[in-house]
Amino acid sequence: MRSRAQFTACYNQGERFFSKNFVVFARLEPQGPAAWQMGLAVTKKCGNAPQRNRIKRVLREFIRLHQEQLPPHIRLVI
After folding, report:
1. What is the pTM assigned to this prediction?
2. Which end of the chain is more exposed for a tag (fewer CB within 10 A), N or C?
């Protein structure tokens, strides 16, 4: 996901799942794109820019390795 409107729609209308280190917002869109979409939002509380970039790289790799388990038509914000 790239647009702010997609992020805010996922924040406002999606379900929230909490863990110790992450919050995942998931929104199912049956009329949306056929493939799943993901957005990452890492706050400054997580550290400086290199640390935040590393968190995003690790999350992207995790999603890449487990993408076959994600249902189609879902939007995620982690």
Report:
1. 0.84
2. N
The H or E element that residue 25 is part of is strand 23-28
Element (H, E) at 37: strand 37-39
| Helix (H/G/I), strand (E/B), else coil: 34 | coil
Cα distance between residue 39 and residue 2, in whole Å: 7
The letter for the amino acid at 55 is I
Tens digits of residue pLDDT in 16-55: 999 998 999 999 887 877 788 899 999 999 999 999 999 9
- CA dist., res. 71 & res. 1, Å (int): 16
Please answer whether residues 77 and 14 qualify as being in contact, where contact means their C-beta atoms are separated by less than 8 angstroms: yes
